[in-house]
Each structure stands twice: as C-alpha cells, then as structure tokens.
Amino acid sequence: MADEKPKNSEVPHVQADHGSTSVGSFNVGNVGGSVAVGNNISIVNYYTANGEKREMRTGWFFGHRYGDLDSFTGRAAEMDMLNAWLNNDKDNLLMLRALGGFGKSALAWTWFNRVDREQWQTAVWWSFYEKESGFESFLSETLKHLGVEVKESARQQVNDLLEAMRGTNILIVLDGFERLLRQYGRMDAALQSDDEDADIDPSQRDCSSPLTETFLRGLSGAGTKSKVLMTTRLCPRALESADGKLLKGCREEPLSAFSPDDAVTYFHNEGIKATRAEILAVCSAYGYHPLSLSLLVGLINEDHESRRY
Ligand SMILES: Nc1ncnc2c1ncn2[C@@H]1O[C@H](COP(=O)(O)OP(=O)(O)OP(=O)(O)O)[C@@H](O)[C@H]1O
Ligand SMILES: [Mg+2]
Fold first, then answer.
1. Which residues line ligand 1 (CB under 6 A)?
2. What is the C-alpha separation between 238 and 246, in angstroms, rounded?
3. Do the domain assignments include residue 1?
4. Is the pTM for the entire model greater than 0.85?
5. Co-location of 146 and 292 in the same domain
6. How close is the Cα of 97 to the center of ligand 2, in Å?
7. Range of the domain at 303
8. Does residue 82 form part of some domain?
C-alpha cells in the first residue's frame, strides 16, 4: 500500500490549548496540589525518583492537527478499547499498529479529542510525519509546554520528561512513530511501500536515534501515572525483550480494516445512495481498507458531480 499522509497535518502547527482546563482545583492525580496562574493554566507539583520537588504546567498541547473530524465513522469497539486502556493502571503504553491507511491516525485523533479534560488536565498530540517534527523537537516542545526548563543535553531532556510523566498524569499521543525507526527513517520514507515491511530484518525496527530508545525503555515497567498512545506501522524493537515479548506495561492492539457495518455507514454518510449489498460488494474488493475506500468515495462523488453539469 502506498504511503499517504494525513491531508491536514502537513504544516507543523504548534499550539497550546488551555481552554477547558479547570482553574485552581486540587489535582488529585498529582502528588502536589495545583495552583491557578491565570488563563486556565495550573501549576502542579511532583517529586522525582530521588525525592526532588519539581513543578509543571498543565494544559492541552497540539504539536500538530490531524484535521477533519466530521467524516470520521464507526470504530465503536476501538473507542471502547482505548477508553478502557486509559482508565486502567496496568499498561502505560498502547501501540496501535497497522499498515498504512488503516485509520490509525484518524482513530487516535478522534478519540484524543473526546478525552475528558477534567480528568486529563495535561495532554500532548505529536505527529512524526514531518522532517522537522522529529524526536528532539517533540522533547523540547513538550518540555516547553510543560513549563519545564529545556536543558541543553537531550539526554537530560529525556530524563526530565520521564520524571514529569512518572510524577504526574500526562496523556501523550505519538502519531506515526514508524518514522523514528530505521526502516522509515530514510530520506525516501514517504515512498516506502508496506510490502517491504513484510519480511524486514528486526534491526530495521530499531530507532534511528539512541535517545528515542532510552525514552521508550523509560516508559515501560511500573511506576508512571502517564499514558502514551503510539500509532505505528511497525513495533519498535526497543519495546520487546530478548524473547520478542512486549516489555511490562506495554500493550499492542492491531487495527483492522473497517467492519462491513462501518463501511456501509461511511458510504451513506458520504452521500452515496447504494444498497448494503452493493456497498459490501465493492468494499470487499478493496479489503475494507479505509484509505482505499475514502479514495473510492471521492471518485464516485466526483464522477456523480461531473454528470450533473
Ligand atoms: N474511521 C474513519 N472514518 C472515516 N474515514 C476514515 C476512517 N479511518 C480512516 N479513514 C480514511 O482513511 C484515510 C487514512 O487514514 P489514516 O491517516 O488514519 O491512516 P493511518 O493508518 O494513520 O496511515 P499511515 O500509516 O499512512 O499514517 C483517512 O484520511 C480517511 O480518509
Ligand atoms: Mg497515520
């Protein structure tokens, strides 16, 4: 399957959104109390592993925007699964894995925007699709948003972010994580075919940068209040132990194609007047692959429009 980028995320667009964060309330999810500092931003205190008291700013931060929520269809079971994961205290990291165009970003984005901002006062959306939105930018921009000093050493930045994540409850979405893996880190990544992923050498699933590996390893295991949702085409090898099993605290959920019901709803929502049987016949020819169906819907509607004039 050819690579397709989300239509509306081309321009990195860093934006903090503190709109619905509650002001001055006591934040029970964090170690310390929280103090309102105006503009709906609160300062929360937390303690590092060695007992040092630190402070951090709450709020929602969109490093990028995926775009269109209106045409989003179905995925009720997946939404339930994500909600249950967010509320469990077992898995720190959930990896939503599938080949290109299966709807990982669309699902993650729609779900993220529905998360309760009272419960999750601090959240970050970051997409790795752009060259300039690499891991180091994610680190420094996220720390800046949290009001945590951005130290010169990137390794120190990783430690500081991990400390904040252990001490407070932050929700982070890492979208398109495969771009940080060797298989997709090449210059021609945008042209990368999924077929090439079928039998790749496991070392291609290593992160291009050791810094990213340190961060991933830091997320596994016990003792963090934060949650990370990763969308990726490939599982990073850093999340696996020597026997290939996922590390403690990490979970993988493959995302499958649309269900027949979702496909029918999608076609009808897009204004295509066809019977269920007709829709299923055409969708099954495309394996219910969401990106392929969206292109097909576009062609059908374009053709229909041009016949009208
Ligand atoms: N639930 C959905 N409802 C409506 N359209 C969808 C849905 N899921 C996916 N699509 C369509 O499929 C396209 C591709 O989806 P998306 O960008 O989420 O794929 P992806 O799995 O993140 O792919 P990649 O690995 O290339 O990033 C979307 O732009 C949209 O047109
Ligand atoms: Mg995506």
1. 3-4, 6, 71-75, 98, 100-106, 176, 231, 233, 266, 290-291, 294
2. 9
3. no
4. yes
5. no
6. 10
7. 260-308
8. yes
